[in-house]
Design a protein that fits this description.
Annexin V, domain 1; elongated; 4 domains; 20 helices; mainly alpha; about 325 residues
């Protein structure tokens, strides 16, 4: 941890992120330190600098590094480092929208699709953010994100992920939405259409009232109804969506308990400047252990130190 990080009187302590702008920021000095560290393969220095600057500052460092050295910083990191630490620091260098696009692309790359990572991003991001991520995806991969999602999914699950990508807030009446969902549950197999239409096109306050109304009317938890009436990927998608409508921090904290490297890095990097403090609090509440302590039990070395720096402190 860089001690100067704590000397700032100008930092935005009102944010819910853990990584904030470094007050005594000198990109030329950082770039020169990084150049020397890359030559020595000094991971400690690389971690100290790149985890103690926010993303906008990292972009300035990368540009300054290229101007000074005529070399690409990402290429230098790839050459000097290996394994999970290399991956993590390269992820920290990506602009936020490009990083989310990258995570979506990785979830669809190769054999099989990582449905839950797709759902994590689509369910926790606003419609406006997803439009911006789609544009970043087009720039990075010269492909249309909606078409890619359609190609990687099928049936009602495909309809759900496309509806999530294009989510918008449409005014409605709580009682009417409760009735539509309630009627859809009649019969052996539920009708997916109203669930997809309603849960992807209302604001969270409205939807929380709808879910409560549905539970009062049906006498069972929405999760239980989804479990009984839907199957496969659609069941997973609706369960994740319901969790994110109710409390996205709880859902993300639950994802972190897997302690799978890609999941932990994905969530921590994505949310480090937005709401990682809230996710940390949800993690502590649900597990009885702080995220900071849990990381120390599952990771090691310089990779662990980088994760701890992003997490920032014990709860």
């Amino acid at each position: 941890m860089d001690p100067e990080y704590f000397k700032s009187y100008e930092m935005c302590w009102g944010t819910l992120g853990t990584v904030r702008p470094f007050s005594n920021f000198h990109p030329e000095r950082d770039a020169m330190e990084i150049q020397a560290a890359l030559e020595r393969k000094d991971a400690v220095t690389l971690v100290r600098i790149l985890t103690n600057r926010n993303n906008a500052q990292r972009q300035v460092i990368a540009k300054t590094f290229e101007e000074i050295t005529q070399k690409d910083l990402a290429a230098g990191l790839k050459k000097a480092l290996a394994g999970d630490l290399k991956t993590l620091l390269l992820e920290l260098l990506m602009p936020p929208l490009e990083y989310e696009a990258h995570r979506l692309q990785q979830a669809m790359a190769g054999l099989g699709t990582d449905e839950e990572t797709l759902l994590e991003i689509l369910c926790t991001r606003s419609g406006k953010q997803l439009q911006e991520i789609s544009a970043a995806y087009q720039r990075l991969y010269n492909k249309d994100l909606e078409k890619q999602l359609r190609g990687e999914t099928s049936g009602d699950f495909a309809k759900l992920v496309v509806a999530l990508l294009n989510k918008e807030n449409v005014a409605s009446v709580v009682r009417r939405d409760v009735e539509y969902l309630s009627v859809s549950l009649n019969g052996k197999k539920a009708d997916a259409v109203p669930w997809i239409d309603i849960l992807t096109s209302r604001d969270s306050n409205h939807l929380n009232k709808v879910l409560m109304g549905l539970e009062n009317e049906s006498g069972q938890m929405v999760d239980q109804a989804v479990e009984k009436k839907f199957t496969g990927d659609l069941q997973l998608g609706l369960k994740v969506l319901v969790q994110c409508i109710r409390n996205p921090d709880d859902y993300l904290a639950k994802r972190l308990t897997t302690m799978e490297t890609a999941i932990v890095q994905g969530i921590m990097v994505s949310h480090s400047e937005e709401d990682l403090l809230c996710i940390r609090a949800a993690y502590l509440k649900s597990t009885g252990t702080s995220l900071y302590t849990a990381l120390q039990k599952h990771f090691k070395g310089d990779h662990l130190q980088a994760l701890l720096a992003i997490c920032r402190s014990e709860d």
